[in-house]
Amino acid sequence: MANVLQAFINIVNNYQVNITNITHGNNRANNMGEGLETYIKEAFSNTLLESDQKIKKQKFRDSFSYEGSKTRIPDLILKDGDAIEIKKTEVLGDLQLNSSHPKAILYSSQNISDECRNCEDNAWIKKDILYAMGHIPKKSKNLKSLWFVYGTCYAADEDVYQDVVNEIKATLKTTNFLQIDTDCKELGKVKNIDSLKITYLRIRGMWVIKHPAKVFDDLYEQTNELFSLIAIIPLEKYNTFPKEDRDHIESIESITITNEEISNPNNAAKILKIKLLLFKVE
Fold first, then answer.
1. Which end of the chain is more exposed for a tag (fewer CB within 10 A), N or C?
2. Which pTM was predicted?
3. Can you spell out the DSSP letters for 162-189?
4. What pLDDT does residue 223 have?
């Protein structure tokens, strides 16, 4: 079963492989994002060097139970494994999550597609979610850094974000001037704006989160390396991976693995024990 340790090793063994700029279309950001998504899929399915498209597609099917849509989280689900959300950035600044708030865990009851909810033979209720965040500087098609960060290290519990949404909706309902409908998946709709009552305004949330390079700069500070690969994995999660995968990654001299502590996203006064995996090319 594919997992982040195997993907990490595959990337280390083939770090010279660059993100390919998919040529169709004129939107570079989208094209490079698609290139990063393909790269992640190939890393988890061990097809970074596979040129036969038929073999590659079969290995994708063997590795993933879901290859996602462009509009809803997640981008991938490993067969009987983790969900993966992929983000590309040209600068190490804030990450745009758009209408989907950060997630510590992916639940089948959340706003996901039916195809995602029913992607496996056995119904699932929740999955660990792994954020894969690639830094591809502007005017480049080379991957400068890639961060793998589990949601429980990065995001608070679901109710923290939902409470904000509920408060905003409750506040919107207090207006006497506008006719606002909050019984929707968005924050609300302003209805009957004109005299013909044919126009309405959608009120949408645009969630933004700091890049892990900024959040975890006390663990690793990205500078001028040609390439760096970082994984932040809860210690409890790390210990669930197959022993052969843990033994393998721990035997590779070029990968640094340390035990670290980070702030708990639900309570900064508490700690969360993690494994920090680091590979870099100077």
1. C
2. 0.92
3. HHHHHHHHHHHTT-SSSEEE--SSSSEE
4. 85
